[in-house]
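Quick one - first record:
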Amino acid sequence: MYAYNERGQQYHVELSKGDVGRYVILPGDPGRVEVIAAFLDHPVKVASHREYVTYTGTLDGTKVSVTSTGIGGPSTAIAAEELIAVGADTFIRIGTAGMIQDYFDLNDCIIATGAVRDEGTTRQYIPLAYPAVAHYQVVTALQYAAEKCGKVSHTGIVQSKDAFYGEAEPESMPNEDMLRSQWQAWKRGQVLASEMEAAALFIVSSIRKVRAGCILNNRGDMKETIAVAVEAMRYLIVADRKS
């Protein structure tokens, strides 16, 4: 089912079983991986290929990894598929987003319960009537962690798109009228923010029977948001031990 390189590793992420833990934090930006890994105990760089950089360390003695997904649904779906193939089963995406609602402080964070599938990758997995939803246990963990860390959070639906500049510069697009109309529909429908990876992660995770969640911020302190994601992983590790 999966593609392998000449060393028997997953073709794109260049990982084998044992390289990562069950629990993986997924930033988009490869440059953010080392920053997140510093929140773990004894982090070690285990792979770097294309947009996929992976560090593995521990939290409270449990192996936890950080892997970058790159930008957008295609590369995120590949990362999720190949990480699942080597044993990962719990994901938290952490990233940035453009706020659709106008009542947020710039330092607030968004915890996604689901994603508008306004992208192309997941249409090649399953029809659009199938929802892109986060796993309830990961959502609960993120809500708990945000409160524990004193971070103001908003929980709800986000939009996942493919074209960054369709949002940033709609006036430059032949589809300007449609883009502006859709943006108003998302806003009136209480969609909280716009990003590019959550739908792909949620769809792959649901189909493959693993858990995924997503926490986002706009232009706030990313280290504070990272701390929430790490605390949420710790919460899930403890809960899994008890169960």
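second record:
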Amino acid sequence: MALEQQIQKDIVEAMKAKDQTRLNTVRSIKSAILLAKTAEGGSKELQDGDIFKIIQKLVKQHKETAEQFIAAGRQDAADKEMAEASILDAYLPKQLSAEEIEQKLKEIISSVGATGIADMGKVMGVATKMMAGLADGKAISAAVRKLLS
């Protein structure tokens, strides 16, 4: 089943279960998908990979907002944001561990022929495409920097 249809099905299930947090969170995914489809120059059909990118962006936003709430002393609001982030995480593929990221990066570095930190751009270009949806960009960047230095 395509991810977009699964999201629609989950909206209906959350309505039936009267789970307001889950319903609002899944609706936010649906809203972001509709915005991407109707955006200027956007495609009318999104692939699952595109939807994963949208969901990753939403997760990142929720986590950053939670950090801001914690800094402001609003733990209740931070907990709500983290709960929504965990609901969103369920739609993403399993994230790669640090060891798996390093192993894939070693393969990429050898295939690209990178020798030093000056080749970081080449490696990052290939790595972000290859590991899209499977690893956070910051984690990839940190691992590339570590391996090339």
